[in-house]
Amino acid sequence: xxxxxxxxxxxxxxxxxxxxxxxxxxxxxxxxxxxxxxxxxxxxxxxxxxxxxxxxxxxxxxxxxxxxxxxxxxxxxxxxxxxxxxxxxxxxxxx
Length: 95
Prior knowledge:
3 helices; about 5% strand; about 80% helix; 2 strands
């Protein structure tokens, strides 16, 4: 099964989404950590009332997590689930 074309497509489709999303999230996260450590002046710039850039960037980590989750669900429903369903039926002998 691992050498089948469908399984290869499933693995490739998953990786083409997961790897870039993981890298982009880690870059954003480490940028936040490094900026909060080494650029305190920048992070403390007020934006609106008591909200500063550091707080907004920290809150954006949650938004980024929700966005990536939503994008993954959309990608899985469109690209991964149909192939996985087909493979499951082949493995279980439903076809």
